[in-house]
Structure formats: structure tokens, C-alpha cells
Amino acid sequence: MIVVDTLLADRQKEGRPVGVGLVGAGFMGRGLINQVVNSTPGMQLVAVYNRTAEKAHTAVSEVGATPKAAESAADVDRLAAGGAVAITDDIDVLTGSDRVDVVVDATGSVTFGAELALACFAAGKHLVLLNAEVDATLGPLLVTKADAAGVVYTGADGDQPGVQMNLIRFVRQLGLTVRVAGNIKGLQDPYRNPTTQEGFAKRWGQDPWMVTSFADGSKVSVEQALVANAAGLTVPKRGLYQLEHAGHVDELTGVYDVEELRALGGVVDYVVGSKPGPGVYVMAEHDDPKQRHYLELYKLGTGPLYSFYTPYHLCHFEVPNTVARAALLGDATIRPQGAPQVDVVTLAKTDLAAGTELDRPGGYHYYGEAERADTTHRDRLLPLGLAEGARLLRDVRKDEVIGYADVELPAGRLVDRLRAEQDEMFFGSPAAG
């Protein structure tokens, strides 16, 4: 979206920067703070929320900005006018500020993310998600609430789902039909845990649990569910094809079964070991022989599948593009379109005993795999985003899928009420009932 640089330059000249409220000062949040403060003219970091305010103070100070505590929305407005960044541990202080146009959720928490989304909609704030987990669990419902509030609900440029959706939109605009939207991974092992990933996490200053969610396949399953729900695609089977291919993704044009892809209407997938990693790819076909002639001339091969790819995804570097698209164009990078197509279900990472209270994603107890949403609902399978804190009612074997009937959910959670509302909206009944 190159146009946003011009629009932001105009806002900079006019002295009307787009105001950003960031929620979460972890690894991704710190990168975004630096990007907005030092590399995005026309955009202002207005406020940062973090449960531990000192962590937000440190993150803002490290990039050369001035953090100051705020106890009210009026404080945020006053500090922003003076060029400081407001720091708060009260989400209402951030969402209540008139200077905040767009809120970025960089928490990764489903339970908190649901509360934050409703707070943003109530306050009339656009919401940009660096929280794929809440989107995969509740996105089809939350987007309807955002639409009703007249605000933009969107995933982010730079995250692989957003990069895939940009590529899908490009390919469809060319007149091709998308058959596969894929993610390139370097590793896939569902039994990784925070202990096995501790060294890698320490090297890069990341959370071992987050790193584990990448390694055990949970994160890519979540990401591909978002793409399916935004692009109207499905899964070929639970867990996707999970191809292993050491060559270039262009070579996958001869690997996929085109007739099967056509029958399914297009799928999401991921491949392990291909180049260029960690990029994304789209396999598409064209039904016009004249255009196929041109595609061959332009070195895309003879079909029927043609390969398109983006060789990188730059995470926090690209998030301001989505902030600008939402605030200045009313455009979402990636958002669910109607009824959910794909969910992420919960499978045991090891043998688990009755009474076990499930830990959070990227932990020791379970991993996630993509599954058709109607199957998830029909078979009353437990969505990955609701698993944390659930108590097992029976012994569960390694690799066994966990259902609602197998667990007791924590009492009184907003996420469970919203999930029931989503199920009722799209399937006519709550799966947890």
C-alpha cells in the first residue's frame, strides 16, 4: 500500500499525525514503538498500556521518546499535545483519549484481547491486531461488532496472514483464481515446548512460550485460519497438507493436486523447508487461454498453477501501514468475511491426566491444528483459544483431540460468552452447550 506514505506525509505537513495507542510492550510492542517514533512521519505514538507500567516506560525511553504517567484520558491528551508518550495500566485511560485514533493489540492474549476489542468498539477506536489468537477464536463475531460501531477491525501488515492477504488481493485483481494460500516454515515439531526452545528464545530476547507456538505448529495453524476466514478458503484435512519441500516454492506448482484443489474451492496450507523463507505464497490459475499465453511469456510457466510469493514478512516494520490504511482509508489488511471457515482445535502434546489444568498455547500440554469450522462445531471440539485454564475431566492420550465434553471451562469468562454468541450467530447453537 504505497499510497499511505503520501497520505502520512500530508498529515505530517498539516500537523495532524495519526494517533496510535499501543497495548502491550513485549517483544513486538517494543519494535513497533521504535518504528512509530523514529521511522513513521505523520504518525504519533500517543499512549502505551502495559500491566507493568515500568516496562512501558523503559520501552519508550529506549527509543528516545519521553514517557510520562497518565491517570486519565485528559492526561493522555495533554501529554500528546506536548509530545510526550502517555503510560498507563488502565485500558480505559488509553481508549478514552481523543488523541488516539487507532489501537494496536500486541498482547497475544485471547481473554484480554476480547475485553480490549469491546472497549475499542465502545470508544469508537479502530483496532489493529498483532493478536492472531483472539482473531482466530472470535474474529467472525468481533468484526460484526466493529462494523456496527463504525470502526475498522483488522489484522496487520507484516504478520504472515496480512502479507498473504495482500498477495491474495493482488492475484485476484489480476484475474486469477486462488487455489492455495501458503505459509513457509523452517521447522515443524508438535512436541516442542518452552524448555526445548529456551535457548533460541534467549538468543533473540523472546518469550519461550511464544517461540514454542511457532515451532509446534500452533501459530501457523492460527495464521492460516485467519487467511481462510478472510479469503473464503478451507482446509484439505485437519492439520493441512504440511508439505516438506527443500526447493523453491515455485516448484510446488507441480506438487499440488489441481483437481482436488478445484473440488475444495481453494485451501490454506504451509510448507516446511522451502525457499524463500520465511515468506508466503499463493498458487493460482487462470481460465483464459489468452492470458495463460501472456503468463508463460512473463516467465510464470505453463500452468495450470502459477506461483506468486512474497519472500519476507517484516512484522513491526509494516504495522504502521495497516494503522494508516485503517485511519486514512477505512481499509482492513485482513479481516473475517462472514461465517467462519476454519478453526484451530486443541490436541494433546503428551499424555495428560484427568484434573490437569491446561497451560497457555506454546506450552507443555497441547498444540493446535487447523480444522473446518463446521466440523469443529459439529463435533464440539475445543478451540485452541479457549483451552488455557480448562481442567481435564478425563485422561487424554498424546495427539488426541480435546473436546468441550472433556473439560471444565473456567467460570465467568467473557471469551466463552462471546464464543457462544458467535456459534449461535453462524451455526444456530453454541458448541459448548
Task: Give a summary of the structure in a few sentences.
The chain is of the alpha/beta class and 433 residues long. It has three domains: 3-156 and 316-329, NAD(P)-binding Rossmann-like Domain (Rossmann fold); 160-315, no CATH class; 342-427, Antifreeze-like/N-acetylneuraminic acid synthase C-terminal domain (Type Iii Antifreeze Protein Isoform Hplc 12, Alpha-Beta Complex), CATH 3.90.1210. It is 39% helix and 18% strand.
Task: Briefly note the CATH topology name of the largest domain.
Answer: Rossmann fold
Low-pLDDT runs of 5+ residues are none
Radius of gyration: 22 Å
- CATH A-level architecture of the largest domain: 3-Layer(aba) Sandwich
Strand-residue fraction? 15-25%
Compute the average pLDDT.
96
- Inertia-based shape: globular
Largest sheet: 7 strands, parallel
Task: Please indicate the count of domains.
Answer: 3
CATH homologous superfamily classification of the largest domain: NAD(P)-binding Rossmann-like Domain
Major sheet: order of its strands?
3-4-2-1-5-6-7
Gap from first CA to last CA: 44 Å
Q: Any overview of this molecule?
A:
- By secondary structure, the chain is of the alpha/beta class.
- It folds into 3 domains: 168 residues, 3-Layer(aba) Sandwich (Rossmann fold), CATH 3.40.50; 156 residues, no CATH class; 86 residues, Alpha-Beta Complex (Type Iii Antifreeze Protein Isoform Hplc 12), CATH 3.90.1210.10.
- The chain is built from 16 helices and 16 strands.
- The chain has a 7-stranded parallel β-sheet with strand order 3-4-2-1-5-6-7, sandwiched between helices.
- Helix 7 packs parallel to helix 11, helix 7 crosses helix 16 and helix 8 runs parallel beside helix 11.
- The longest helix is centred in the first third of the chain and has 18 residues.
- The model has no long low-confidence stretch (mean pLDDT 96).
